[in-house]
Amino acid sequence: MMKLPSIAGHKQKDSSSRCAGGQQGLALLLVLSMITLLVAAVVSFNQAMSSGYAETNIYKNQSIMRAMTESGMDIAMAVLHTDGTSNQYDHGFDSWSLLGEQPIPGEFSQGVVEAVIVDHDGKFPINALADEDTPWRDVLYRLLTSGLFVVEDEVAAREIVDSLADWLDEDDNELPYGAESGYYLSRENGIEPRNGPFVSLAELSLVKGVTTELLYGTDEHLGLREVVTILDTGGTVNLNTVRAPVLMAIDPRINAEHVEKLEEFRADENNAPAFSGVSWYRRVSGWPADIELPGDMLKTDSQTFTVTVNSRYLGSRMSLIADLVRDSDSSLRIVRRTYRYL
What we know:
The chain has helices at residues 7-86, 95-98, 136-144, 154-168, 181-185, 212-216, 244-250, 256-266, and strands at 111-119, 124-125, 228-229, 237-238, 298-299, 304-313, 316-326, 332-341. It is α/β, with parallel strands linked by helices. The longest helix is centred in the first third of the chain and has 80 residues, at 7-86. The radius of gyration is 36 Å and the shape is globular.
């Protein structure tokens, strides 16, 4: 009799095949999983390396730019020092004033360094308002009522002058239109007035009557920040560099035509030798003989400056801004300095 194949044998064989196939499938899945993990690890590693390289490159570029910027500041300070030792008066044809007309020459591969020096002795000395006998309070009143600034009326102008003076003076006695601690402490987030010199232009915005439009200007009006300084100029202005609005406010009889003629005289380099004394304005064509500028408010030298150094390197930009004081021996002191990455 023919024997039939054992069913149990077939089942055992099929079971063994399925087991082997299952083990092979599991092994394949494990291999694929490992490959996936390895690929992910490689991609992550490459990304990390790329990110690290980019960060390193950025740091390198910033370090180069910072060195360039510091070099520009050193050069600007050297120019100011040399100018101070070579002459006793400052004007628009001095080397420091002309420094910003072209980039600073140097071995700056793929980079550019520019420096601009602005003197503050040609601006209104806002901290001089602390002195109750100072003529600068009247000058500021005329400046505010000139129509160049956002000031509502003459009463508002007087309020601003008195409030600025109260902020600066050491006592707690309010001027007729001013404000002292009682006013400021009654406001939300009340503060005490400084009762001392301003330490920043932004601080002016804390004073009663000083609006954002007045401080920073508008499309149609100047801002106080353009014509005032918080640096110590000794309560005087340099006639050779004084801003036109400030000059016009020094004497109510001075008009725009007078200032224009004076600026034309200052713009002629042939007149530079005359700038050593404060009486040169009398030589200006058309200057009224009866207008005599107050000598105790004027000078012809500058001691306070802002130096702005701008550097560009491979598409990146950096600025360094420093306020400086030049002492009588021409040495320079840094009052404050700020870096900006652009």
